[in-house]
Amino acid sequence: MWIFSAFLLVSEVWALPPPCDSEIYCTGEILKQIQTAKLFNDDKHFVDMKLTAAPEVVLGAFQNLTSKFPDGVVPRTELQEFLSTFFEEPGKEFEPWVPPDWRDNPHFLSKIADTTLREWAKQLNGLWKSLGRKLRDDVRIHPELYSSIYTPHPVVVPGGRFRELYYWDSYWVLNGLLLSEMTDTAKGMIQNFLFLVDKYGFVPNGCRIYFERRSQPPFLALMVESFYEATKDHEFIKLALPALEREYNFWMQNRSVSLDLHGTTHVLNRYNVEVGLPRPESFTDDVELAEGLSPDAQEKLWVELKAGAESGWDYTSRWYINSQNQSGGTFKDTRTSAILPADLNALMCRNERVLAYLYRIVGNEEAAKRYDQAVSARIKAIESLLWDPEMGSWFDYNLLSNSRHLSFYPSNLAPLWAQCYSQPSMGERALQYLKASGALKYPNGVPTSLNVSGQQWDMPNAWPPLQHMLIEGLSKLNSTEAKETAFDLTQRWIYTNWRAYVNYDAMFEKYDVNGDGKPGGGGEYEVQLGFGWTNGVAMQLLDQYGDRLMSRATGVSFLLETVLICCILIILLFT
Ligand SMILES: *[C@@H]1O[C@H](CO)[C@@H](O)[C@H](O)[C@H]1NC(C)=O
Ligand SMILES: *[C@@H]1O[C@H](CO)[C@@H](O)[C@H](O)[C@H]1NC(C)=O
Ligand SMILES: *[C@@H]1O[C@H](CO)[C@@H](O)[C@H](O)[C@H]1NC(C)=O
Ligand SMILES: *[C@@H]1O[C@H](CO)[C@@H](O)[C@H](O)[C@H]1NC(C)=O
Ligand SMILES: *[C@@H]1O[C@H](CO)[C@@H](O)[C@H](O)[C@H]1NC(C)=O
To answer: What's 529's DSSP letter?
Structure first.
């Protein structure tokens, strides 16, 4: 049994903390034996199951069970029996909940000119009812029986295997909820994140204890900004600011790097999770990937995989660095923490700007100035390290080779979205870079990279948040060319989402850039439906461009159809 020998070696040497302290959900023999036996298609299944008895009882019973077998390895049938005695199916932590503030006909629908798209948007609005979740009170009373992290308010979840609240997904979910005029649900979600910052000092990746030592792209301040814009609720800003400040400090203290360049010290951010052991929810994937490595190298790889999960891009060739310290290699070469990502730093810049804006609203000019200065320092750092004057775009920075990775990713243009640059000419140059990159030639969205690696954050997948950030970034430029590119990408994306909805009766987490509505694939699990951020992004684009969008592929095919209809009419007239 290769898995056991490799894993036992590691358990002896690991120095870093485990993903959480639970000896059932994050470390220990039960997790190892059940995941290794592959009783379920997805490793997330087991770690989402509820205990039927106190953890000590379950641990004791398992110890008794293992002692019956000479090698301590419990056979499959006995494992299954053990599971059915001491665990319940996932989902037992929730009770049915339809958001009480859901409404039938939110105002944004009336802005959509195309009647087919308007009818579809109405159905998207209806999907919130199926994605609402409320935790049973038992999770608060008996947290030891669950891997769920208790939060006080009901939520809207992404969907599919993502059955709990997630961090960065929620930004687009929340913007969709606000368009659906569901402000109470939106507020409750933000309150949950504030609660999590109070508890952990940052927002975990999702509401499960096995996520409690890693975060995700920090969008909480932007959620508060969206909420304020929709409600003008000053009091809520006052309530939120201490947690926003605390989260910001976490990123600056625990996820930053200082670099000296020509006598100036720049501070930029990275993803970094110094936690050993495989991810409990993808346990066998992580063990199998680390097979054959030295214990030390295994632990390093697991640290980098967790940083990759923290980035939200799990997984991608974007994080590969080979033995020559250059971009490239294979999955085992994932080195997320050695990269200063363009999008994370743009997002931090937006956080700084939003914090200044929120402090100014509540009249704290001194704190606002502090964040103005942080924005200036961030722009200098981004322009010194991430901007490439020859290529005319921003890029990720490799800390091992001290150089930029010049491959295309939509995230390269995140400083456009964050408006985090000092010269307007940089924005127009970035547009020319985008047009020359080859990334705009796909009919169904902008690909996540130009590299087909088999990973889900690579070619041929297109992801809703990346489309949205790119479109919003382009729409903020002044040139007609930029604005038309933004609209063209919107039209392609909305057509893709709508086409897939018609074909499959579903909204997917990602799409194939060449699939004409086919969902994306690759990576560690089957494509998921639901889907929170997809619905949120579609609603935002329908709201913004609803007067022009059409439920057909492109302007070109519209033109062709018109010409065809005219020809038929002419033929009919003359026969
Ligand atoms: C484990 O075995 C001991 C000795 O047979 C027994 O007393 C104890 O109740 C068992 N524990 C569990 C949880 O079954
Ligand atoms: C951040 O780093 C500090 C100092 O290294 C450490 O004490 C603290 O626990 C870390 N915070 C979190 C939330 O991990
Ligand atoms: C890669 O980077 C590390 C850290 O900077 C350095 O120690 C190592 O020598 C580099 N390897 C190569 C092949 O350049
Ligand atoms: C692209 O993916 C292949 C594996 O399919 C890999 O060998 C290559 O190095 C990758 N390129 C980059 C830039 O990551
Ligand atoms: C767009 O034009 C306005 C008004 O002329 C100007 O203030 C702003 O800086 C321009 N923005 C960009 C990104 O070029």
So the answer is: B
Instruction: Evaluate if residue 3 carries a pLDDT over 60.
Output: no
Residue nearest to atom 10 of ligand 4 (CA): 328
From the list 3, 83, 574, 549, the residue with the least C-alpha distance to 283 is: 3
Helix (H) or strand (E) holding 94: strand 94-95
Give the count of beta carbons closer than 10 Å to the beta carbon of residue 132: 20
pLDDT digits (tens, 9 = 90+) for 138-188: 999 999 999 999 999 999 999 998 999 999 999 999 999 999 999 999 999
Distance, CA 507 to ligand 4 centroid (Å)? Answer: 30
Q: What single-letter amino acid sits at 356? A: A
Within 10 A of 445 (CB to CB), how many other CB atoms are there? Answer: 29
First to last CA, the chain: 80
Query: Does 203 score more than 90 pLDDT?
Result: yes
Decide whether any atom of ligand 2 lies within 6 Å of the 254 Cβ.
yes
Tens of pLDDT, residue by residue over 422-441, are 999 999 999 999 999 999 99
Is 42 annotated as catalytic? no
Q: What span, in angstroms and rounded, lies between the C-alpha atoms of 234 and 345? A: 28
Element (H, E) at 258: strand 256-261
Could you read off the pLDDT of 12-39 as tens digits, one per residue?
A: 445 799 999 999 999 999 999 999 999 9
Q: Which long-range contacts (CB under 8 A, 24 or more apart) does 38-45 make?
A: 38/284, 39/76, 39/79, 39/80, 39/83, 42/161, 42/525, 43/280, 43/281, 43/282, 43/283, 43/284, 43/285, 44/161, 44/281, 44/282, 44/525, 45/90
| Alpha-carbon Rg for the chain in angstroms | 25
The candidate with the shortest Cα–Cα distance to 349, out of 268, 470, 405, is 268
Is residue 166 within 8 A of residue 216, CB to CB? The reply is: yes
Q: What are the tokens at 5?
A: 């020998």
Q: What are the domain boundaries of the chain?
A: 29-88
Q: Which ligand is nearest to the CA of 59?
A: 1
Reported in sequence order, the residue ranges of 386-425 that DSSP labels E, i.e. its strands, are 387-388, 393-394, 396-398, 403-405
